[in-house]
Amino acid sequence: MATINDDVFDVCIVGAGIAGSTCAYYLAEKGIQTLVLEKKKFPRDKICGDAITERAQIHLNHMGVLQEIIAEKKGNWAALGGLVSPSGIEYYGDSSKEQEHLVIAIKRKILDEKLIQAAIKQGANLVENYTVTETTFLEEKGIWSITCDKNKKEYKARVLIVADGAASHLGRKLGLVDGPPQATCSRAYIESGSHQFPYDGVCYYPPKLVPGYCALFKEADGDVVYCCYIIPGGECDTSHLTELHHKFIKEDPFISKAIGSNPKLEKMKAAPIRFGGIPRSYGNHLLIIGDAAGQIDPVTGEGIQYAMDAAEIAAKTIQNGMKRNNLGERFLKQYHRKWMKSFGRDFKWSQRMVKVCVKYPIFLDAFASVSKRKGDKFMTEWGKIMTGSKTKISFFMPKLAFPLAFETLRLRRKRKKHAKDAK
Ligand SMILES: Cc1cc2nc3c(=O)[nH]c(=O)nc-3n(C[C@H](O)[C@H](O)[C@H](O)COP(=O)(O)OP(=O)(O)OC[C@H]3O[C@@H](n4cnc5c(N)ncnc54)[C@H](O)[C@@H]3O)c2cc1C
Q: 80-84 and 155-162: which strand pairing?
Protein backbone atom coordinates (compact mmCIF):
# COMPACT_ATOMS: atom_id res chain seq x y z
CA MET A 1 0.00 0.00 0.00
CA ALA A 2 1.37 3.44 -0.96
CA THR A 3 1.70 5.89 1.93
CA ILE A 4 2.20 9.65 2.08
CA ASN A 5 5.92 9.17 2.83
CA ASP A 6 7.01 6.81 0.11
CA ASP A 7 6.15 4.79 -2.93
CA VAL A 8 4.15 5.39 -6.02
CA PHE A 9 0.41 6.02 -5.74
CA ASP A 10 -1.95 4.53 -8.29
CA VAL A 11 -3.58 7.92 -8.81
CA CYS A 12 -2.74 11.50 -7.84
CA ILE A 13 -5.57 14.04 -8.02
CA VAL A 14 -4.73 17.74 -8.11
CA GLY A 15 -7.50 19.72 -6.39
CA ALA A 16 -9.89 18.68 -3.61
CA GLY A 17 -12.97 20.47 -4.94
CA ILE A 18 -16.20 18.69 -5.83
CA ALA A 19 -14.63 16.84 -8.77
CA GLY A 20 -11.36 15.85 -7.07
CA SER A 21 -12.92 14.66 -3.80
CA THR A 22 -15.71 12.74 -5.55
CA CYS A 23 -13.21 11.01 -7.81
CA ALA A 24 -10.98 10.19 -4.80
CA TYR A 25 -14.03 8.68 -3.08
CA TYR A 26 -14.93 6.41 -6.01
CA LEU A 27 -11.29 5.37 -6.59
CA ALA A 28 -10.67 4.58 -2.91
CA GLU A 29 -13.97 2.69 -2.79
CA LYS A 30 -12.51 0.39 -5.46
CA GLY A 31 -9.34 -0.10 -3.41
CA ILE A 32 -7.19 2.11 -5.67
CA GLN A 33 -4.34 3.93 -3.84
CA THR A 34 -5.26 7.58 -4.20
CA LEU A 35 -3.51 10.80 -3.22
CA VAL A 36 -5.24 14.20 -3.31
CA LEU A 37 -3.11 17.36 -3.32
CA GLU A 38 -4.95 20.57 -2.38
CA LYS A 39 -3.51 24.08 -2.31
CA LYS A 40 -5.78 25.27 0.53
CA LYS A 41 -6.58 23.97 4.01
CA PHE A 42 -10.06 22.74 4.97
CA PRO A 43 -12.52 24.10 5.91
CA ARG A 44 -12.20 26.51 2.98
CA ASP A 45 -14.76 28.59 1.11
CA LYS A 46 -15.52 28.22 -2.61
CA ILE A 47 -17.42 30.96 -4.44
CA CYS A 48 -20.62 29.27 -5.56
CA GLY A 49 -24.42 29.60 -5.65
CA ASP A 50 -24.62 26.53 -3.36
CA ALA A 51 -27.52 25.02 -5.37
CA ILE A 52 -27.07 21.26 -5.35
CA THR A 53 -29.28 19.63 -7.95
CA GLU A 54 -30.87 16.15 -8.19
CA ARG A 55 -28.04 14.56 -10.20
CA ALA A 56 -25.51 15.61 -7.56
CA GLN A 57 -27.80 14.49 -4.74
CA ILE A 58 -27.58 10.90 -6.08
CA HIS A 59 -23.78 10.90 -5.51
CA LEU A 60 -24.07 12.61 -2.11
CA ASN A 61 -26.63 10.02 -1.09
CA HIS A 62 -24.36 7.17 -2.18
CA MET A 63 -21.51 8.64 -0.13
CA GLY A 64 -23.71 9.16 2.95
CA VAL A 65 -22.88 12.89 2.82
CA LEU A 66 -26.44 14.02 2.08
CA GLN A 67 -27.84 12.06 5.03
CA GLU A 68 -25.19 13.57 7.32
CA ILE A 69 -25.94 17.11 6.12
CA ILE A 70 -29.69 16.65 6.59
CA ALA A 71 -29.22 15.13 10.06
CA GLU A 72 -27.04 18.09 11.06
CA LYS A 73 -29.58 20.54 9.53
CA LYS A 74 -26.93 22.09 7.28
CA GLY A 75 -28.91 21.97 4.04
CA ASN A 76 -32.10 23.78 3.01
CA TRP A 77 -34.43 22.13 0.47
CA ALA A 78 -35.65 24.58 -2.15
CA ALA A 79 -39.35 23.81 -1.66
CA LEU A 80 -40.77 27.30 -2.09
CA GLY A 81 -39.61 29.24 -5.10
CA GLY A 82 -39.73 29.95 -8.79
CA LEU A 83 -38.78 32.40 -11.45
CA VAL A 84 -39.21 36.02 -12.54
CA SER A 85 -39.13 36.40 -16.33
CA PRO A 86 -37.50 39.27 -18.29
CA SER A 87 -40.78 41.19 -18.59
CA GLY A 88 -41.57 40.63 -14.91
CA ILE A 89 -43.98 37.67 -14.99
CA GLU A 90 -43.59 35.97 -11.60
CA TYR A 91 -44.21 32.32 -10.82
CA TYR A 92 -43.68 30.84 -7.37
CA GLY A 93 -44.45 27.20 -6.61
CA ASP A 94 -44.50 25.11 -3.47
CA SER A 95 -43.17 21.55 -3.43
CA SER A 96 -43.03 21.25 0.37
CA LYS A 97 -45.57 18.41 0.31
CA GLU A 98 -43.47 16.42 -2.21
CA GLN A 99 -40.97 13.74 -1.15
CA GLU A 100 -38.27 14.98 -3.50
CA HIS A 101 -36.95 18.45 -4.31
CA LEU A 102 -34.86 19.43 -7.29
CA VAL A 103 -32.40 21.54 -5.30
CA ILE A 104 -30.90 21.68 -1.83
CA ALA A 105 -28.78 24.67 -0.78
CA ILE A 106 -25.60 23.71 1.08
CA LYS A 107 -22.77 26.12 1.83
CA ARG A 108 -19.67 24.97 -0.04
CA LYS A 109 -17.51 25.51 3.03
CA ILE A 110 -19.50 22.69 4.63
CA LEU A 111 -20.07 20.49 1.57
CA ASP A 112 -16.49 20.41 0.29
CA GLU A 113 -15.08 19.46 3.69
CA LYS A 114 -17.65 16.66 4.09
CA LEU A 115 -16.80 15.34 0.62
CA ILE A 116 -13.06 15.11 1.22
CA GLN A 117 -13.71 13.55 4.64
CA ALA A 118 -15.88 10.90 2.94
CA ALA A 119 -13.03 10.17 0.51
CA ILE A 120 -10.53 9.90 3.39
CA LYS A 121 -12.88 7.49 5.21
CA GLN A 122 -12.80 5.31 2.08
CA GLY A 123 -8.99 5.28 2.26
CA ALA A 124 -7.87 8.24 0.12
CA ASN A 125 -4.90 10.34 1.31
CA LEU A 126 -5.02 14.15 1.46
CA VAL A 127 -2.16 16.64 1.56
CA GLU A 128 -3.28 20.24 2.18
CA ASN A 129 -1.39 23.50 1.58
CA TYR A 130 0.24 21.89 -1.45
CA THR A 131 0.06 23.93 -4.68
CA VAL A 132 1.11 21.71 -7.55
CA THR A 133 3.33 23.65 -9.93
CA GLU A 134 5.15 21.00 -11.98
CA THR A 135 4.11 17.64 -13.34
CA THR A 136 6.46 15.50 -15.43
CA PHE A 137 5.60 12.19 -17.05
CA LEU A 138 8.50 9.73 -16.92
CA GLU A 139 7.63 7.79 -20.08
CA GLU A 140 10.00 4.84 -19.54
CA LYS A 141 8.58 4.16 -16.03
CA GLY A 142 4.99 5.12 -16.83
CA ILE A 143 4.96 7.37 -13.76
CA TRP A 144 4.16 11.03 -13.03
CA SER A 145 6.39 13.15 -10.83
CA ILE A 146 4.38 15.89 -9.10
CA THR A 147 5.99 18.80 -7.29
CA CYS A 148 5.19 21.99 -5.40
CA ASP A 149 6.94 25.38 -5.61
CA LYS A 150 7.85 25.48 -1.90
CA ASN A 151 10.54 22.80 -1.77
CA LYS A 152 8.01 20.34 -0.42
CA LYS A 153 8.04 16.61 -1.00
CA GLU A 154 7.80 15.21 -4.53
CA TYR A 155 4.95 12.72 -5.12
CA LYS A 156 4.70 9.96 -7.71
CA ALA A 157 1.68 8.28 -9.27
CA ARG A 158 0.77 6.11 -12.25
CA VAL A 159 -2.17 8.32 -13.23
CA LEU A 160 -2.57 12.07 -12.89
CA ILE A 161 -6.06 13.55 -12.58
CA VAL A 162 -6.31 17.30 -13.06
CA ALA A 163 -9.21 18.75 -11.01
CA ASP A 164 -7.89 22.24 -10.34
CA GLY A 165 -11.02 24.24 -11.25
CA ALA A 166 -12.09 26.65 -14.00
CA ALA A 167 -8.80 28.55 -14.38
CA SER A 168 -6.92 25.21 -14.60
CA HIS A 169 -3.33 26.42 -14.74
CA LEU A 170 -2.23 22.80 -14.79
CA GLY A 171 -4.61 21.83 -17.59
CA ARG A 172 -3.22 24.70 -19.65
CA LYS A 173 0.36 23.74 -18.90
CA LEU A 174 -0.37 20.19 -20.03
CA GLY A 175 -1.92 21.48 -23.26
CA LEU A 176 -5.44 20.13 -22.58
CA VAL A 177 -7.09 23.45 -21.73
CA ASP A 178 -7.01 26.37 -24.09
CA GLY A 179 -7.86 30.01 -23.39
CA PRO A 180 -9.56 31.70 -20.45
CA PRO A 181 -13.00 30.70 -19.05
CA GLN A 182 -15.85 32.29 -21.04
CA ALA A 183 -18.25 33.33 -18.26
CA THR A 184 -18.20 34.69 -14.73
CA CYS A 185 -20.42 34.84 -11.67
CA SER A 186 -20.52 36.85 -8.46
CA ARG A 187 -21.54 35.79 -4.98
CA ALA A 188 -22.51 37.60 -1.77
CA TYR A 189 -24.10 36.10 1.33
CA ILE A 190 -26.86 38.17 2.94
CA GLU A 191 -26.96 37.72 6.68
CA SER A 192 -29.93 35.97 8.25
CA GLY A 193 -32.42 38.44 9.74
CA SER A 194 -31.26 41.31 7.50
CA HIS A 195 -33.22 40.28 4.36
CA GLN A 196 -36.89 39.96 3.38
CA PHE A 197 -36.58 36.84 1.20
CA PRO A 198 -39.72 34.75 1.78
CA TYR A 199 -38.76 31.87 -0.57
CA ASP A 200 -36.16 29.08 -0.67
CA GLY A 201 -34.91 29.74 -4.19
CA VAL A 202 -35.77 32.09 -7.06
CA CYS A 203 -34.11 32.78 -10.44
CA TYR A 204 -34.46 36.31 -11.82
CA TYR A 205 -33.93 37.22 -15.47
CA PRO A 206 -33.40 41.01 -15.63
CA PRO A 207 -33.71 41.85 -19.40
CA LYS A 208 -30.22 43.36 -19.58
CA LEU A 209 -28.66 40.17 -18.20
CA VAL A 210 -30.28 37.53 -20.47
CA PRO A 211 -29.03 34.83 -21.16
CA GLY A 212 -27.47 35.31 -17.70
CA TYR A 213 -29.57 35.58 -14.57
CA CYS A 214 -29.50 36.28 -10.85
CA ALA A 215 -30.35 33.72 -8.19
CA LEU A 216 -31.26 33.87 -4.52
CA PHE A 217 -31.17 30.71 -2.40
CA LYS A 218 -31.89 30.43 1.30
CA GLU A 219 -29.36 28.47 3.34
CA ALA A 220 -30.02 26.28 6.38
CA ASP A 221 -28.67 28.98 8.75
CA GLY A 222 -31.08 31.59 7.34
CA ASP A 223 -28.47 33.43 5.25
CA VAL A 224 -29.36 34.00 1.59
CA VAL A 225 -26.83 33.50 -1.19
CA TYR A 226 -27.08 36.06 -4.02
CA CYS A 227 -25.39 35.32 -7.36
CA CYS A 228 -25.24 37.19 -10.65
CA TYR A 229 -24.31 34.98 -13.64
CA ILE A 230 -22.88 36.68 -16.73
CA ILE A 231 -23.24 34.30 -19.66
CA PRO A 232 -21.87 35.59 -22.97
CA GLY A 233 -24.10 36.02 -26.02
CA GLY A 234 -26.31 38.87 -24.81
CA GLU A 235 -25.89 42.58 -24.10
CA CYS A 236 -23.38 42.14 -21.24
CA ASP A 237 -19.93 40.71 -21.01
CA THR A 238 -17.81 39.65 -18.06
CA SER A 239 -16.47 43.21 -17.58
CA HIS A 240 -19.98 44.33 -16.47
CA LEU A 241 -20.15 41.97 -13.49
CA THR A 242 -19.29 44.34 -10.61
CA GLU A 243 -21.59 47.09 -11.90
CA LEU A 244 -24.55 44.75 -12.48
CA HIS A 245 -24.12 42.79 -9.24
CA HIS A 246 -24.61 46.01 -7.23
CA LYS A 247 -27.13 47.63 -9.59
CA PHE A 248 -29.64 44.76 -9.40
CA ILE A 249 -29.52 44.72 -5.57
CA LYS A 250 -30.56 48.38 -5.53
CA GLU A 251 -32.59 48.87 -8.70
CA ASP A 252 -34.16 45.64 -9.95
CA PRO A 253 -37.76 45.84 -8.67
CA PHE A 254 -37.96 42.13 -7.81
CA ILE A 255 -34.44 41.49 -6.47
CA SER A 256 -34.35 44.68 -4.38
CA LYS A 257 -37.74 43.82 -2.88
CA ALA A 258 -36.65 40.25 -2.04
CA ILE A 259 -33.44 41.45 -0.43
CA GLY A 260 -35.01 44.34 1.48
CA SER A 261 -33.82 47.84 2.26
CA ASN A 262 -31.16 47.15 4.87
CA PRO A 263 -29.33 43.93 3.99
CA LYS A 264 -26.08 42.95 5.69
CA LEU A 265 -24.26 41.94 2.54
CA GLU A 266 -20.96 40.15 2.22
CA LYS A 267 -18.48 41.97 -0.04
CA MET A 268 -18.93 40.79 -3.63
CA LYS A 269 -16.71 37.88 -4.65
CA ALA A 270 -16.46 36.48 -8.16
CA ALA A 271 -15.08 33.44 -9.94
CA PRO A 272 -14.77 32.36 -13.58
CA ILE A 273 -16.91 29.74 -15.31
CA ARG A 274 -15.57 27.49 -18.08
CA PHE A 275 -18.51 25.86 -19.86
CA GLY A 276 -19.37 23.59 -22.76
CA GLY A 277 -16.64 20.96 -22.30
CA ILE A 278 -13.09 20.84 -23.68
CA PRO A 279 -12.41 18.85 -26.88
CA ARG A 280 -9.89 16.41 -25.31
CA SER A 281 -10.01 15.49 -21.63
CA TYR A 282 -7.50 12.63 -21.62
CA GLY A 283 -3.86 11.90 -22.34
CA ASN A 284 -1.23 9.30 -21.57
CA HIS A 285 -1.90 8.24 -17.93
CA LEU A 286 -3.85 11.50 -17.65
CA LEU A 287 -7.46 12.67 -17.19
CA ILE A 288 -9.02 16.08 -16.53
CA ILE A 289 -12.33 16.46 -14.69
CA GLY A 290 -14.82 19.06 -13.42
CA ASP A 291 -14.56 22.79 -14.13
CA ALA A 292 -11.04 22.31 -15.46
CA ALA A 293 -12.61 20.25 -18.28
CA GLY A 294 -15.36 22.85 -18.82
CA GLN A 295 -18.02 20.45 -17.51
CA ILE A 296 -20.51 23.26 -16.84
CA ASP A 297 -23.88 23.75 -18.51
CA PRO A 298 -23.72 26.85 -20.76
CA VAL A 299 -27.33 27.80 -20.04
CA THR A 300 -27.25 27.66 -16.21
CA GLY A 301 -23.58 27.99 -15.22
CA GLU A 302 -24.08 24.98 -12.93
CA GLY A 303 -21.46 22.28 -12.77
CA ILE A 304 -21.53 20.40 -9.47
CA GLN A 305 -23.65 17.54 -10.83
CA TYR A 306 -21.48 17.16 -13.95
CA ALA A 307 -18.23 17.32 -11.96
CA MET A 308 -19.53 14.43 -9.83
CA ASP A 309 -20.76 12.37 -12.80
CA ALA A 310 -17.43 12.86 -14.61
CA ALA A 311 -15.52 11.96 -11.44
CA GLU A 312 -17.36 8.64 -11.21
CA ILE A 313 -16.80 7.90 -14.92
CA ALA A 314 -13.08 8.73 -14.53
CA ALA A 315 -12.76 6.39 -11.52
CA LYS A 316 -14.44 3.51 -13.40
CA THR A 317 -12.24 4.07 -16.46
CA ILE A 318 -9.07 3.99 -14.36
CA GLN A 319 -10.22 0.85 -12.56
CA ASN A 320 -10.73 -0.87 -15.94
CA GLY A 321 -7.39 0.42 -17.21
CA MET A 322 -5.60 -0.95 -14.15
CA LYS A 323 -7.23 -4.36 -14.56
CA ARG A 324 -5.95 -4.47 -18.15
CA ASN A 325 -2.65 -2.81 -17.26
CA ASN A 326 -3.41 -0.21 -19.91
CA LEU A 327 -3.47 3.45 -18.92
CA GLY A 328 -2.47 4.78 -22.32
CA GLU A 329 -4.14 7.64 -24.15
CA ARG A 330 -6.12 5.39 -26.50
CA PHE A 331 -7.63 3.42 -23.64
CA LEU A 332 -8.42 6.49 -21.51
CA LYS A 333 -10.23 8.09 -24.45
CA GLN A 334 -13.30 6.11 -23.38
CA TYR A 335 -13.62 8.47 -20.38
CA HIS A 336 -14.14 11.36 -22.80
CA ARG A 337 -16.65 9.40 -24.90
CA LYS A 338 -18.62 8.37 -21.82
CA TRP A 339 -19.02 11.80 -20.25
CA MET A 340 -19.87 13.28 -23.64
CA LYS A 341 -22.62 10.65 -23.97
CA SER A 342 -23.80 11.15 -20.39
CA PHE A 343 -24.11 14.97 -20.47
CA GLY A 344 -21.54 16.64 -22.75
CA ARG A 345 -23.62 16.40 -25.93
CA ASP A 346 -26.49 18.10 -24.15
CA PHE A 347 -24.29 21.20 -23.77
CA LYS A 348 -24.65 21.77 -27.53
CA TRP A 349 -28.43 22.04 -27.03
CA SER A 350 -27.82 24.40 -24.12
CA GLN A 351 -25.77 26.62 -26.41
CA ARG A 352 -28.67 26.68 -28.89
CA MET A 353 -31.02 27.51 -26.03
CA VAL A 354 -28.81 30.44 -25.03
CA LYS A 355 -29.18 31.83 -28.57
CA VAL A 356 -32.97 31.37 -28.50
CA CYS A 357 -33.26 33.16 -25.13
CA VAL A 358 -31.19 36.11 -26.39
CA LYS A 359 -33.17 36.43 -29.62
CA TYR A 360 -36.57 35.66 -28.10
CA PRO A 361 -36.61 36.50 -24.37
CA ILE A 362 -40.38 36.22 -24.74
CA PHE A 363 -39.77 32.46 -24.50
CA LEU A 364 -38.84 32.91 -20.81
CA ASP A 365 -41.95 35.09 -20.31
CA ALA A 366 -44.06 32.36 -21.92
CA PHE A 367 -42.59 29.78 -19.58
CA ALA A 368 -43.41 31.82 -16.46
CA SER A 369 -46.87 32.53 -17.83
CA VAL A 370 -47.66 28.85 -18.61
CA SER A 371 -46.35 27.85 -15.16
CA LYS A 372 -48.81 30.27 -13.60
CA ARG A 373 -51.65 28.48 -15.36
CA LYS A 374 -50.43 24.90 -15.14
CA GLY A 375 -48.74 25.00 -11.75
CA ASP A 376 -45.89 23.11 -10.12
CA LYS A 377 -45.85 20.07 -12.42
CA PHE A 378 -44.92 22.23 -15.40
CA MET A 379 -42.33 24.09 -13.35
CA THR A 380 -40.81 20.81 -12.14
CA GLU A 381 -40.46 19.53 -15.73
CA TRP A 382 -38.66 22.75 -16.67
CA GLY A 383 -36.46 22.48 -13.55
CA LYS A 384 -35.50 18.89 -14.36
CA ILE A 385 -34.42 19.90 -17.86
CA MET A 386 -32.53 22.99 -16.71
CA THR A 387 -30.64 21.08 -14.01
CA GLY A 388 -29.69 18.14 -16.23
CA SER A 389 -32.03 15.48 -14.77
CA LYS A 390 -33.58 15.40 -18.25
CA THR A 391 -31.96 16.27 -21.58
CA LYS A 392 -32.56 19.66 -23.19
CA ILE A 393 -34.22 17.90 -26.15
CA SER A 394 -37.05 17.13 -23.70
CA PHE A 395 -38.20 20.70 -24.36
CA PHE A 396 -39.55 19.31 -27.64
CA MET A 397 -41.92 16.96 -25.80
CA PRO A 398 -45.48 17.92 -26.82
CA LYS A 399 -46.57 18.50 -23.20
CA LEU A 400 -43.95 21.27 -22.94
CA ALA A 401 -43.45 22.45 -26.51
CA PHE A 402 -47.12 23.03 -27.41
CA PRO A 403 -48.13 25.13 -24.39
CA LEU A 404 -44.89 27.14 -24.67
CA ALA A 405 -45.37 27.79 -28.40
CA PHE A 406 -49.03 28.82 -27.95
CA GLU A 407 -48.18 31.08 -25.02
CA THR A 408 -45.33 32.72 -26.94
CA LEU A 409 -47.71 33.52 -29.81
CA ARG A 410 -50.39 34.76 -27.41
CA LEU A 411 -47.95 37.08 -25.61
CA ARG A 412 -46.63 38.41 -28.95
CA ARG A 413 -50.12 39.18 -30.17
CA LYS A 414 -50.98 40.87 -26.87
CA ARG A 415 -47.84 43.02 -26.97
CA LYS A 416 -48.43 44.04 -30.58
CA LYS A 417 -51.97 45.09 -29.67
CA HIS A 418 -50.70 47.10 -26.68
CA ALA A 419 -48.14 48.84 -28.89
CA LYS A 420 -50.82 49.65 -31.49
CA ASP A 421 -53.25 50.96 -28.85
CA ALA A 422 -50.50 53.11 -27.32
CA LYS A 423 -49.85 54.93 -30.66
C1 LIG B 1 -20.18 32.18 -8.55
C2 LIG B 1 -20.46 30.77 -8.98
C3 LIG B 1 -21.68 30.20 -8.65
C4 LIG B 1 -21.93 28.86 -8.98
N5 LIG B 1 -23.10 28.31 -8.58
C6 LIG B 1 -23.34 27.00 -8.80
C7 LIG B 1 -24.51 26.38 -8.29
O8 LIG B 1 -25.32 27.01 -7.60
N9 LIG B 1 -24.71 25.07 -8.57
C10 LIG B 1 -23.83 24.33 -9.31
O11 LIG B 1 -24.07 23.15 -9.56
N12 LIG B 1 -22.69 24.90 -9.78
C13 LIG B 1 -22.41 26.20 -9.52
N14 LIG B 1 -21.24 26.76 -9.96
C15 LIG B 1 -20.24 25.89 -10.58
C16 LIG B 1 -19.53 25.06 -9.49
O17 LIG B 1 -19.00 25.92 -8.50
C18 LIG B 1 -18.42 24.21 -10.10
O19 LIG B 1 -18.95 23.49 -11.18
C20 LIG B 1 -17.79 23.25 -9.10
O21 LIG B 1 -17.19 23.95 -8.05
C22 LIG B 1 -16.75 22.38 -9.82
O23 LIG B 1 -15.90 21.73 -8.93
P24 LIG B 1 -14.37 21.44 -9.30
O25 LIG B 1 -13.92 20.48 -8.28
O26 LIG B 1 -14.22 21.10 -10.72
O27 LIG B 1 -13.61 22.83 -9.12
P28 LIG B 1 -13.39 23.67 -7.79
O29 LIG B 1 -14.55 23.55 -6.89
O30 LIG B 1 -12.98 25.03 -8.24
O31 LIG B 1 -12.14 22.97 -7.06
C32 LIG B 1 -10.82 23.08 -7.52
C33 LIG B 1 -9.89 22.79 -6.36
O34 LIG B 1 -8.55 22.72 -6.84
C35 LIG B 1 -7.69 23.41 -5.94
N36 LIG B 1 -6.51 23.80 -6.72
C37 LIG B 1 -6.46 24.67 -7.75
N38 LIG B 1 -5.20 24.72 -8.26
C39 LIG B 1 -4.45 23.85 -7.53
C40 LIG B 1 -3.08 23.46 -7.57
N41 LIG B 1 -2.24 23.96 -8.47
N42 LIG B 1 -2.64 22.56 -6.66
C43 LIG B 1 -3.48 22.02 -5.74
N44 LIG B 1 -4.79 22.36 -5.66
C45 LIG B 1 -5.28 23.25 -6.55
C46 LIG B 1 -8.55 24.57 -5.45
O47 LIG B 1 -8.08 25.11 -4.25
C48 LIG B 1 -9.91 23.88 -5.29
O49 LIG B 1 -10.06 23.30 -4.02
C50 LIG B 1 -20.97 28.10 -9.69
C51 LIG B 1 -19.76 28.70 -10.07
C52 LIG B 1 -19.51 30.02 -9.72
C53 LIG B 1 -18.20 30.63 -10.11
A: unpaired
CA 51 to chain centre: 8
Contact (Cβ atoms closer than 8 angstroms) between residue 370 and residue 376: no
How far away, in angstroms, is 201 Cα from ligand 1 center?
Answer: 21
Locate the ligand 1 atom nearest the alpha carbon of residue 215 and give its number. 8
| C-alpha 375 – ligand 1 centre gap (Å) | 34
Q: What is the DSSP letter of 265?
A: B
What's the 242 CA to ligand 1 centre distance in angstroms? Answer: 20
Residues 224 and 197: beta-carbon distance below 8 Å: yes
* ipTM of model over 0.90: yes
Minimum CA distance residue for ligand 1 atom 17: 48
- pLDDT profile of the chain (423 residues), mean per 10: 74 98 98 98 98 97 98 97 96 83 96 98 97 96 93 94 98 96 98 96 97 98 98 95 97 96 96 98 98 97 98 98 97 98 96 95 95 90 92 91 94 91 82
How far away, in angstroms, is 163 Cα from ligand 1 center?
9
Residue (of 40, 353, 419) closest to 210 by Cα position: 353
